[in-house]
Amino acid sequence: MNGALPEDLYAELDRLLTPGDALRLARYPGEWPQRQPVHTCYVPADAVVPGLAASWGSAALEALDEHGLPDLGLDPALVEEVLPRVRHKLATEAVEDLRVDAEDGYRGGPDHEDDDVLRAGAVLAADVQGGTAPPSVGIRAKSLEAPTRRRGVRSLDLFLGTLAGQGPGRAVVTLPKVTDVDQVRAFLTVLEALEGAHDVALDLELQIETPQAVLGPDGTAPLARMVHVAGPRLVGLHYGTYDYSASLGISAAYQAANHPAADFAKHLMQVAVAGTGAHAVDGSTNVLPVGPREHVHEAWRIHAHLVRRALVRGFYQGWDLHPAQLVTRYLATYAFFRAALPAAAERLAGYLDRSDGGVLDEPATARALATVVLRGLDCGAVDDEDVRAAGGPDRQVLDSVAGRRPGGAEVVADRRPAR
Questions:
Q1: 66, 96, 152, 373: which could join 142 in a potential S-S bond, CB 3.0 to 4.6 Å?
Q2: Is 259's pLDDT higher than 80?
Q3: What pLDDT shows up at residue 368?
Q4: pTM for the whole thing?
Q5: Of all residues in the chain, what percent carry a pLDDT higher than 70?
């Protein structure tokens, strides 16, 4: 039986909608295949030392051995299960993403900043050459607000010039305290000039830590427009816990990543980057695990709770400010992904076999299931044998179901037009 609608109607639909299809695909290309780090460690430029990643791992292990683990509010059996993996991670790849900080964390002063960023760049370049640098590295300079604009760009120029020809070939630049779309647009010109001058590919992160970035004077969400102005160069929106909270007048005692005001801003960030390939990244806690055992244990409990809370809400990356925070970063992260594996593997097997089960999955949920398994593999929480033992598919099938393109990191360069 032939349909009643003429072919002309279908042709007209294509004519009307095809341009929008192309525009939507360009704006929302989906997840990129590179591994997302589980954290970003911010280290002041004047505190960067040779072998920094290994020294952070050693310090974390020392804190663990000295203080032991308290009840972290996690499943004790899972904690016991992942602890050997966490120890191995701290000994081999403690820092997944390093950001040299020439902004709020830097305490050297204007008379010393040139020397400190040059020295930090040289130290990092030597670590890259020696194979001891973290997989991802970069720098946070000062904002584009008038008082710090020239200083911030100069620090980027000096730092990247030191890395030129010796560094990783790709680095991340974090622009803090963004207040409007024009700053992002102007900063793209700066990044292009830096790439041309220093022969380094630059990815961009924007720090969402001002109310003006979240809600503009016209009632719109500027951060959403910032994402699309930045385009495929953007890898993440990072939440700035304390600047944002303070800007809203929240009392210092209640400034935290789990405050309702923080959840509002981060949810907007999450929606703004969905489908673009960029990530929404949680902020930090300044309650550091230092001092007597009772204080270290309390700080670990707070941090473990915040890490798990973020993971449950779909924020797979956050900030760490102190080596001992790596203990709970990896404990909470590994426990989360190992707890997710059995159900994810079972549901994926049912989806791929088209068998009936307790949950009716569709492509979108199957993609989420495959992605959570891949994230666990990426960070070391699980390995291929664990996935097979749980009845899950091999890595190639996981990549396909998750929508990751073949080639992984090798095709990351495709995400930006050639210079």
A1: 152
A2: yes
A3: 93
A4: 0.92
A5: 95
163 pLDDT band, cuts 50/70/90, is: confident
Could you read off the pLDDT of 109-121 as tens digits, one per residue? Answer: 889 999 999 999 9
Domain 39-337 has CATH 3.20.20.60: yes
pLDDT of the residue at 361? 74
Structure token pair of residue 255? 């400034």
Domain ranges of the chain: 39-337, 340-404
